[in-house]
Amino acid sequence: MALVSPEDRLVGQAGTWKLGAILTALFCLAAGVGPYLYPVDPNVQNLLATFAPPSADHLLGTDQLGRDILARVLHGARYSAGIAIAVIAFSLAMGCALAGIAMWFGGVIATSLTMFSDAVYALPGLLVTILLADVLGGGAAVIVFLLWLVAWPEYYRLSYAVGIQLMQSDHVLASRLAGASGIAIFRLQVLPVMLPYLLSLGAISVGRIVLSIATLGFLGIGIAPPQAEWGMMINDLRVYWQLAPVQLAAPVLAIIWIVLALLILSQSMPKAKAGLG
After folding, report:
1. Tally of helices (H runs) and strands (E runs) in the chain
2. CA atoms 205, 208, 210, 212: torsion sign
3. Which CATH superfamily is 13-40+56-268 part of?
4. Nearest-10 crossing angle of helices 230-237, 245-268
5. Which of 94, 221, 106 is nearest to 159 (CA)?
6. Is the pLDDT at 8 greater than 60, yes or no?
7. What CA–CA distances, in Å, run from 258 to 3, 23, 267, 271?
8. pLDDT (tens digit, 9 = 90+) per residue, 20-32?
9. 68 forms bridges with which residues in the sheet?
10. What is the pLDDT of residues 71-120, one digit of tens each?
11. Domain boundaries in the chain?
């Protein structure tokens, strides 16, 4: 059995990371500029052109209301990306802030924050999101809030686990003895080492968020119509799968694409070693 050298393993990891980065970049490009490159209104209905097959006029065909599928997929990508970015930003900010407080003060404060994050983390996140979304109603703001509510503990747990090791290192202890502020130490000495781990977690989280958004849309408790959203598109088209297989496949493949791309990216992302151990 041939052994794989560390050099070959690194080359393979770099190639996998590039693949994930390219697939993710294509998704970001589709979400960011796709609607401008394909300037078709995703909500315009044409009941004379329902379930039109792919053509020059409608590259991926139309749905049961005659709406352009490609336009709706592109606008759905922008919607999912916008919510995912907002949730990750809020979760990262809260997780890092609370981890910084716990690391600096320690004692009862650290124990209380860790117990609280563990309690929230133990909740079935998707089930809680579905139940609260059904009570509070849909809408982008509600979805961002609910997804953030169940996402931030992961960022706290990772930040605290990595950061507490760094806070006990010699160079950080020396900075504290020299009178450096906690914010300065966290920003200059802890966060740079922690960042690759947070980016890897963020990549995985975006995939889960996209799936959660699609689940809410499929169940009819996500964004309100006529906003283009992948889960809602799948729910609308699933009963017509024999009549419009291409139209149904489009949002399904879009979800698979971004989730797979981010999974590849997160698993092959280089991790920082400096400062740990």
Report:
1. 10, 0
2. negative
3. MetI-like (1.10.3720.10)
4. 150
5. 94
6. no
7. 33, 7, 14, 22
8. 889 889 999 999 9
9. 62
10. 999 999 999 999 999 999 999 999 988 988 898 788 899 999 999 999 99
11. 13-40+56-268
